[in-house]
Automatic annotation (TrEMBL):
The keyword Iron-sulfur applies. Binds 1 [4Fe-4S] cluster. The keyword Iron applies. Keywords: 4Fe-4S, DNA damage, DNA repair, Glycosidase, Hydrolase, Iron, Iron-sulfur, Metal-binding. It comes from Methylomonas defluvii. Its EC number is 3.2.2.31. Adenine glycosylase active on G-A mispairs. MutY also corrects error-prone DNA synthesis past GO lesions which are due to the oxidatively damaged form of guanine: 7,8-dihydro-8-oxoguanine (8-oxo-dGTP). This is Adenine DNA glycosylase. SMART domains: ENDO3c, FES. Residues 39-189 form the HhH-GPD domain. One of its GO terms (molecular function) is purine-specific mismatch base pair DNA N-glycosylase activity. Belongs to the Nth/MutY family. CDD domains: ENDO3c, NUDIX_DNA_Glycosylase_C-MutY.
Length: 355
C-alpha cells in the first residue's frame, strides 16, 4: 500500500469515525494544542479531558499561564502525575510570553523549549499551524511498527530512527492536522496495545504484522528490568490548632515543587528530626502501609499520625516548611498519594473535632 493510498483510507475512516469533539479540538491554536499534547504524554484521553478543561479555564492563554504562580499551576496539575511536565509547561510559557505570546514555527525552535520533543513539536505545527510535520507518539509508533512489521522496542534509537523515516514518508502535505489526529485516533481506538480491532481497521489490508500473524508481538516490548522498591515513612504532624506540617519539595526530581509531608528512611530518623526541633509529640498512630508505583520504582510508605503538644512557629526553614490549616490544603499542589492521606486522616480529624 503506497503512502497516498494509506492517507486516503485513513482520511476516509477519520471523516466517518474519528474523534472530533475533544475539548482541545475546539478553538484550535498553538497554546491549546501544546497544553493538550503535554497532558496526553503518559496519560490517557479519558483522564485528561477534565484536567484540560479546568486548566484552560484558569489559564486561557500562554500569558495568563506565564504570569501565574508555580504553586497554582502545580495545584491544577495535581493528580495527573509526572510533575516535571507541569514545571516545564510553566518554564516554556514564560519563554513564549516573552516573545509576545507567539510560539516558534519550526520543529527545531519548538524542540529547544523545555518539555517539548520532536513529536510534540510536530503535533503543534501540524494541528495548529497546518505544517506537514511527522509525529511519533506512542500510538503512532504502534501503528507504524505493525503496519511495516518493524521489530524491536520503539524506544531503541535504531528502531525509533526507522519509524521516524516511515512517519515522514507517510505524512501528507494537505490536511496535516487531520492526518495527525487520525493517526493518534487509530492507535488509541483500533490499533490498541491489547485486543486490537484489526477487522475494522481502515489500513488492515496493507498491515504486514497482520499478514505475518505478528500483531500481538509488535511493537517489541521494552527490555525488562527488576523494579526497585523504596521504603519511606511520612509524618502527618498536627498542632493544637489542627494545622498540618507540609514541606515544599525541591524543584527537580520526584514530585518536584509540590507540597508534601516530611519523609524519613526509618522511625529513628523521624524521632531524631522531632527532637532536633524540640517537638513534643503524643498520640502517635502508625497507619497501614501503602504503595505508590512510579515508572521506575515502587514506593512503599508508612504514614505516622501524631499530635504536637508544644506551640511552634508558623514558618520554618526559609519557608520550605509551613503549617497549613485544613481548609488551605485544597489550594496547594499535592502529590496524589499525599492528597489521599490528608483527605483520609487530617480532614476527618478536623471534622471529628468540630462535631
Amino acid at each position: 500500500m503506497s503512502p497516498e493510498q494509506f492517507q486516503q483510507k485513513l482520511f476516509s475512516w477519520f471523516d466517518n469515525h474519528g474523534r472530533k469533539d475533544l475539548p482541545w479540538q475546539r478553538d484550535i491554536n498553538p497554546y491549546r494544542v501544546w497544553v493538550s499534547e503535554i497532558m496526553l504524554q503518559q496519560t490517557q484521553v479519558v483522564s485528561v479531558i477534565a484536567y484540560f478543561n479546568r486548566f484552560v479555564a484558569r489559564f486561557p492563554t500562554v500569558q495568563s499561564l506565564a504570569s501565574a504562580e508555580l504553586d497554582e499551576v502545580l495545584q491544577h496539575w495535581s493528580g495527573l502525575g509526572y510533575y516535571a511536565r507541569a514545571r516545564n509547561l510553566y518554564k516554556t510559557a514564560q519563554i513564549v510570553a516573552g516573545n509576545a505570546g507567539v510560539f516558534p514555527q519550526t520543529v527545531a525552535e519548538l524542540s529547544a523549549l523545555p518539555g517539548i520533543g520532536r513529536s510534540t513539536a510536530g503535533a503543534i505545527l501540524s494541528i495548529a499551524c497546518g505544517q506537514s510535520q511527522p509525529i511519533l507518539d506512542g500510538n503512532v509508533k504502534r501503528v507504524l511498527a505493525r503496519f511495516h512489521a518493524v521489530h524491536g522496542w520503539p524506544g531503541d534509537n535504531k528502531v525509533a530512527a526507522q519509524l521516524w523515516q516511515i512517519s515522514q514518508r507517510y505524512t501528507p502535505t494537505q490536511r496535516t492536522g487531520d492526518y495527525t489526529q487520525a493517526m493518534m485516533d487509530l492507535g488509541a481506538t483500533l490499533c490498541t496495545r491489547s485486543k486490537p480491532l484489526c477487522e475494522i481497521c481502515p489500513v488492515a489490508e496493507g498491515c504486514q504484522a497482520r499478514q505475518l500473524a505478528l500483531v500481538k508481538q509488535l511493537p517489541g516490548p521494552k527490555p525488562r528490568k527488576d523494579v526497585p522498591v523504596k521504603q519511606l515513612y511520612f509524618l502527618l504532624l498536627l498542632d493544637k490548632e489542627n494545622r498540618i506540617l507540609l514541606e515544599r519539595r525541591p524543584p527537580t526530581g520526584i514530585w518536584g515543587g509540590l507540597w508534601s509531608l516530611p519523609e524519613f528512611d526509618d522511625p529513628q530518623a523521624l524521632q531524631d528530626w522531632c527532637l532536633q526541633r524540640h517537638y513534643q509529640m503524643h498520640a502517635l498512630q502508625t497507619l497501614p502501609d501503602q504503595r505508590h508505583s512510579f515508572s521506575h520504582y515502587h514506593l512503599d510508605y508508612t504514614p505516622i499520625l501524631a499530635k504536637l503538644e508544644n506551640p511552634i512557629n508558623n514558618v520554618m526553614e526559609g519557608e520550605r516548611a509551613v503549617w497549613y490549616k485544613t481548609a488551605e490544603i485544597t489550594t496547594l499542589g499535592l502529590p496524589a498519594p499525599i492528597k489521599r492521606l490528608l483527605q483520609q486522616h487530617v480532614t476527618e480529624d478536623q471534622n471529628d473535632e468540630n462535631d
